[in-house]
Amino acid sequence: MTAPLTVIIDQVEGRFPMSSVQVSSDNIHRAEHARAVGRSQRREVRAAHAFLAPALVFFAIFLLLPFVFAIVLSMSKWGGFDITRIQFVGFTNFKNLFGPTSLFINPILWQTLLFSVMSVALTVIGALIITSCIERLRFQGFWRLLFFLPVVTNVAAIGNVWKQMYQPYGLINGMLNTLGIKSIKFLNDTSLALPSVAVVYAWVSIGTATLILTAGIKSIDAGIYEAAELDGANSWKVFWNITLPLLRPTLLFVTITQVISSMQSFVLMISMTQGGGPANSTKVAALAMYQTAFNEGNYGSANAMAIILFAIIFIATLIQLWVNNRRGEED
């Protein structure tokens, strides 16, 4: 005999309670929501890849591939032009550069490091002084523009102008003669030629550093300076205890970029010292690479120099970052 409808309903409700049905429905909704979120995230990832693709292609073609090709050439012998004549020679180029008769380590690399230290020190210190002075003057935009003009001027033209100023009959020696000082052979003395070029390089680079440091100073809260003035701090204490510590990230950026740029510089040497003279006293690594590749036609050795210079710049950058992070932890 057929069971009453109420009994059947009771049995169904006992076997499948309403709470279980509700939980199952919630799980279905959660799964559908998760799938919708997953589809949305996948669309965002595809859109991000689409926007990044041009930059990644540019990076691969103009940065990554040339770097890999430079590594290959550093282990090869090649005179240029005909790529089918590349001969693999292993580490021969590096052995020759580090050999006892090679001039690349001493004096070329030593002079490169010395030039970088002198020019970066002059640039950073000079930019700090100029930036601090401009902050106290009227028409600040005009003064920044004035110091930035050498940056947008042709480097070869600047080198030729300063070369004439350094001559025994030039402007600088003329001023020294007026003061009763004998003429100085700035570019003809092996001990003065490299520092003389470093001064010009710092003069060219100081405009960029000044603008960056100005941006760093503008980002410092003015209330800190107001509190220091209320406490009676003078200008030197404010600069040393407030401005300089808060400018540390900006100074790190300026220093790193200047080190990289100075180690790669060689145009001033070509225009001012006729290719590294006198007696190779101004011959730096980038100039040696240029002459080895284009004057001697030895692209393999030139690329080996480039790899060594890249390693030195990379290590110098890591050291600067490590020192800055260590100082930050101590503070």
Please tell me about this protein's structure:
By secondary structure, the protein is mainly α. The chain folds into two domains: 21-74; 103-330, MetI-like (MetI-like fold, Orthogonal Bundle), CATH 1.10.3720. Mean pLDDT is 87; it is low at 5-9. Strands 1-2 form a two-stranded antiparallel ribbon. It is 75% helix and 1% strand. It has helices at 5-15, 18-74, 92-97, 104-134, 140-148, 155-166, 171-178, 193-218, 222-230, 235-246, 248-263, 267-273, 285-295, 299-330; strands at 76-77, 87-88.
How many domains? 2
- The CATH topology assignment of the largest domain is MetI-like fold
The largest sheet has its strands arranged as: 1-2
Low-confidence stretches: 5-9
Strand content: under 5%
Structural class based on helices, strands and sheet pairing: mainly alpha
State the name of the first-level CATH class of the largest domain: Mainly Alpha
The CATH superfamily of the largest domain is MetI-like
Write the element-wise H/E pattern from the N-terminal end onward. HHEEHHHHHHHHHHHH
- How many β strands by DSSP? 2
CATH architecture assignment of the largest domain: Orthogonal Bundle
